[in-house]
Amino acid sequence: MPTVDIDPDELRDLTGTEEKSDDELKDDLFGLGLEFEGRTEDGAFELEFAPDRLDRLSVEGVARSLRYHYGDSRGVHVPSTNSADWTIEVDESVPADRPYVTGAVIRDVDLDEESLDSLIQLQEKLHATMGRKRAKGAIGIHDLTMLKGSAATEGNPTIEYVGVEPEADTFVPLDADAEMTPAEVLEDHPTGQTYADLVSEYERYPAIYDDLGLFSFPPVINGRRTEVSTDSRDLFVEMTGTDQWTIDKMLNIVCYALAARGATIEDIEVSYKDHDLVRPDLSTKTKTVPHERIETILGIDLDPDEVIDLAERSGLEAERNEGEAGNLVYEVTIPPYRVDVLHPLDVIDDLGRAYGFNELEPCYPDVGTVGGRHERSRLERATREQLVGLGFEDLLNFHMINEAENFERLDVAPGSDAYGAGEPTTIKEVYSEDYTMLRTWVMPSLLMVLERNTHRSYPQYLSEIGFTARLDDSENTGVSENRHVGAVLASHDAGYEDAKARLQALCRQFDVDLETPPTEHPTFISGRTASVVIDGEEVGVIGEVHPAVLVEHDLEVPVAAFEFDLEAFRE
């Protein structure tokens, strides 16, 4: 879960609650869904929060939520903006993979060390979350007084978003003293090396120019000429990315944070070849929420005026209306900084928090059945208990993985006939390159744990009963979802016989017939590998892990392992 560092004194100052103790603040923050994880070396609160509430990535956003929580602020607040005085012109040479730009001018901001640190933290947290490590959106913040806009026909000073040859121009990047070309930044600058993979394949690199020259190399690094300091009073904020919606929403969050410091927001014009935009886009949106659904979800009776009051205390606004069926509904206005409200249930969650979930009285559901453990869950539990009894330590690993961990590092070809080599279910828009697909078997996860546990003593006997998935046209969803039983034995004398003995003991407990005919599998040693056949059906594999796979995982002891489908134990 994402965390954010918040100075409690600054939080008290921004909320006007100097009398609040640290413990009281922690309780209030917990009511908002912000969990206290500890303190930093500087004494700041380290808070964990739901990753959808990106407006709380800064002390300003957290303070705004608290003011609504205390009732000091109500309804939707949209800061006013001054007319555009600057233009960003998008040139046709901009790389097609990163064609979008947005921005705003911030006037009269009062920056001290604390507020500047908060702004930098907000920038980096947005990069890591909504910006997908700058791949989807990257933020540049500049000292406006150091920019000189090119003259434009309509009178606005203009800067240009263009594509440049890797060696075509030079600038002095942040944390450097000499001019460098974009190509040299990617090769020699620490920040450039970190983000080189985002642009290194482009024929032309993204670049932003003013009348004095290149001052920003997005999404990699800004120029030193426009570096922001505590002396900066006017800022130019630009963002580039792969889609307009993402960078526009990131911009809104930054603008609200700076407006909370007393700054004035000024529009800019974004000029594309075929259309123009005025940014920031601080327009609101609405969601229609039925009154009956609010009461059903929260389990309480509410007067319409109470609903409107709860909405205003959540930073929303609700207007009574009549639905198509004559029922009572609310047209709820959502502020521009809320990127998480996608469904009426998101609104109801806000209303419940404003009411206070601790104020809700628990009650039995109005149904005529009694809950119990599902048959599959009972089978999993029984199998898990038997594995623990055989000396295995039970694990619960992530279901998501990447292609290299699932296939390449175990020498398995996707789509081959080898056990665990089914066609993977991939993630369309990945959050992290570490998690790009659902695993097709649990063996990669078990070997990853062994790899991370090389500093611990041996033997290590690990097992997992976990979720796997693969593409399957015969399923209605196109995906076959399964539960696999996997186990590894890592010790100086681990062998095929040790793994088979435990597998046999496990099968005896479930009164099934086990056969282990020889087979070949790229993950295991030839001649020391067998199929797992239960009640006449081939359901898995058992063997000694191949030395090449052990070396790939930095393992210096032999490993024997088995894996099979849990369904084989179902009567």
List the helices and strands and how they pair.
Elements: E1 3-6, H1 8-15, H2 22-31, E2 35-39, E3 45-48, H3 59-70, E4 81-90, E5 100-107, H4 113-128, E6 137-143, E7 158-164, H5 182-188, H6 190-195, E8 205-210, E9 213-217, E10 221-222, E11 235-241, H7 244-259, E12 264-271, E13 276-279, E14 285-290, H8 291-298, H9 304-312, E15 317-322, E16 328-334, H10 344-355, H11 375-389, E17 393-395, E18 400-401, H12 403-406, E19 425-426, E20 437-438, H13 443-452, E21 460-471, E22 479-490, H14 496-509, E23 514-515, E24 524-534, E25 537-545, H15 547-552, E26 559-565
Parallel strand pairs: 4-7, 4-12, 17-21
Antiparallel strand pairs: 1-3, 2-3, 5-11, 5-12, 6-11, 7-8, 8-9, 9-10, 12-13, 14-16, 15-16, 18-20, 19-20, 21-22, 22-26, 23-24, 24-25, 25-26
Helix pairs in contact: 1-3, 4-7, 8-10
- Span between termini: 40 Å
The SS-based structural class is alpha+beta
Radius of gyration: 29 Å
Number of domains: 4
- β-strand number: 26
Task: State the CATH topology of the largest domain.
Answer: Phenylalanyl-tRNA Synthetase, Chain B, domain 3
Taken from the alpha-carbon principal axes, the silhouette is globular
Family: Belongs to the phenylalanyl-tRNA synthetase beta subunit family. Type 2 subfamily.
GO cellular component, one term: phenylalanine-tRNA ligase complex
Cofactor: Mg(2+)
Domain B5: 282-362
